[in-house]
């Protein structure tokens, strides 16, 4: 084990200690939940990164996702022609790509994957997988069946995961609500995973496998951080129970595919809207900060980057070192991770792709760790989406959800960093999981 592996391993516990310091009640932490949560992450990461069979499964999953993604582009190429061609590629007519266009190449794949998820729900494949993870979390970590089911759903879907526990929302404890909010923001949906694969696949061929791995690792990480930030002080109604997911099954497979596609369309519009709004607001804030910050730099002889990305980079810099990113890359990676907080993970993954294309990242270790650290909806826009979405399902809990929102965002951010630290613990420069 190399020095940086040890740094990442120590970082897991430093992050948990930081969460404990910010806890709503430090005296009643359920350490069984914490120990099992960390243990499950380490066992899974050990299997994927170190055990030959796990590595083969990882590569097989990566290849499957990539091939499915190739199928997803069939519709975009038909609709948008050359605009849909990834950079450096040509079509059957010999036409070359015009460059990278997020709106024409990456975003449409979300619709395809949302439709695919809808079909898998109808065929009962998705509920089966969700119940497996839910059973493991409930029995080993001894949390409530409702929150373990919702957390398990978040491995595969996004805000829709709350629908699986709709009958239980009004009776859930505040700690349970914090957990489902944390899981929503600390994971990604399979429908948008294709978007990140599309952005990074050229420079990081095994990105798909790492995103799948990160989705699984993040689930117990969210439970751990949530229970540290907001420990359980009540008795959940479904404590230790194995409950079935609640969902309304379509009449037939075609209807499921159509409804999935329609949901994907709304998701694409939502992503595009958030990017337009938040990137514009961030640019405006950067302009204002630049004016006043530039004056301060001039008066005091400072060299501070006063952009939001720069300021957040300073805040996340120590955390970037803690999770095992080498100092040579730490400031760049810190800026990318910090950017996610205000500009969404889509922009952060694009920034990471730009750094890779420019050769600005010197250590492959930094690439892998950052991929895991960004794998979550831990940003302000997502906070509004999840609090608003779950409040719509349980209006009586709106006040509790709004009060828990920022604690959950903090827990989700720490959970993403924890997932990155776990990946950094088992990273090896000789690993075939790098794909290069």
Explain what you see.
The chain is an all-alpha fold and 436 residues long. It has one domain (3-434). The protein contains 15 helices and no strands. The protein has helices spanning 3-21, 31-49, 52-80, 102-122, 125-141, 145-154, 174-186, 190-200, 207-229, 253-300, 308-322, 327-358, 364-373, 380-393, 398-426. α1 runs antiparallel to α15 (398-426), α2 crosses α15 (398-426) and α11 crosses α12. The longest helix has 48 residues, at 253-300. The protein is globular. The two termini are 21 Å apart. The mean pLDDT is 87.
Compute the number of strand runs: 0
Structural domains: how many: 1
The biggest beta sheet is recorded as: none
Query: How would you sum up the global shape?
Result: globular
Helix count?
Answer: 15
**Average pLDDT taken over every residue:** 87
H/E element sequence: HHHHHHHHHHHHHHH
End-to-end separation: 21 Å
Q: Please identify the structural class as seen in this structure.
A: mainly alpha
Proportion of strand residues: under 5%
Helix percent reads over 70%
Radius of gyration: 21 Å
Topology:
Elements: H1 3-21, H2 31-49, H3 52-80, H4 102-122, H5 125-141, H6 145-154, H7 174-186, H8 190-200, H9 207-229, H10 253-300, H11 308-322, H12 327-358, H13 364-373, H14 380-393, H15 398-426
Sum this structure up briefly:
The chain is built from 15 helices and no strands. Helices cover about 70% and strands about 0% of the residues.
List keywords for this structure.
single chain, 71% helix, 436 residues
């Amino acid at each position: 084990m190399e020095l940086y592996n040890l740094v990442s391993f120590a970082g897991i516990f430093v992050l948990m200690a930081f969460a404990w310091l910010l806890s709503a009640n430090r005296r009643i932490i359920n350490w069984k939940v914490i120990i099992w949560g960390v243990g499950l992450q380490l066992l899974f990461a050990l299997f994927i990164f170190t055990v030959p069979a796990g590595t083969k499964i990882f590569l097989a999953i990566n290849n499957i996702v990539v091939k499915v993604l190739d199928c997803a582009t069939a519709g975009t190429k038909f609709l948008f022609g050359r605009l849909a061609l990834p950079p450096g590629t040509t079509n059957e007519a010999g036409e070359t790509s015009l460059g990278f266009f997020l709106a024409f190449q990456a975003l449409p794949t979300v619709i395809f994957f949302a439709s695919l998820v809808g079909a898998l729900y109808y065929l009962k494949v998705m509920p089966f997988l969700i119940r497996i993870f839910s059973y493991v979390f409930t029995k080993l970590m001894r949390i409530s069946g409702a929150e373990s089911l919702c957390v398990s759903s978040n491995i595969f879907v996004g805000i829709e995961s709350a629908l699986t526990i709709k009958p239980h929302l009004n009776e859930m404890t505040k700690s349970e609500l914090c957990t489902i909010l944390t899981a929503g923001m600390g994971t990604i949906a399979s429908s948008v995973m294709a978007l990140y694969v599309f952005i990074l696949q050229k420079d990081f061929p095994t990105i798909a496998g790492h995103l799948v791995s990160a989705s699984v690792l993040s689930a117990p990480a969210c439970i751990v951080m949530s229970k540290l930030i907001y420990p359980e002080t009540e008795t959940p109604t479904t404590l230790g129970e194995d409950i079935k997911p609640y969902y309304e099954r379509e009449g037939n497979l075609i209807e499921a595919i159509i409804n999935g596609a329609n949901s994907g369309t709304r998701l694409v519009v939502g992503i595009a809207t958030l990017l337009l709004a938040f990137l514009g607001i961030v640019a405006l804030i950067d302009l204002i900060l630049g004016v006043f910050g530039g004056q301060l730099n001039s008066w005091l002889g400072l060299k501070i980057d006063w952009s939001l990305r720069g300021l957040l980079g300073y805040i996340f810099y120590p955390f970037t070192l803690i999770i095992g990113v080498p100092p040579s890359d730490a400031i760049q990676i810190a800026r990318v991770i910090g950017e996610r907080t205000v500009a969404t993970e889509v922009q952060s993954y694009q920034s990471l792709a730009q750094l890779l294309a420019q050769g600005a990242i010197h250590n492959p270790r930094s690439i892998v760790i950052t991929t895991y650290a960004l794998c979550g909806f831990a940003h302000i826009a997502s906070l509004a989406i999840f609090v608003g979405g779950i409040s719509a399902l349980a209006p009586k809990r709106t006040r509790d959800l709004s009060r828990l929102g920022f604690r959950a965002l903090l827990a989700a951010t720490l959970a993403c960093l924890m997932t990155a630290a776990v990946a950094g613990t088992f990273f090896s420069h000789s690993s075939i999981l790098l794909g290069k």
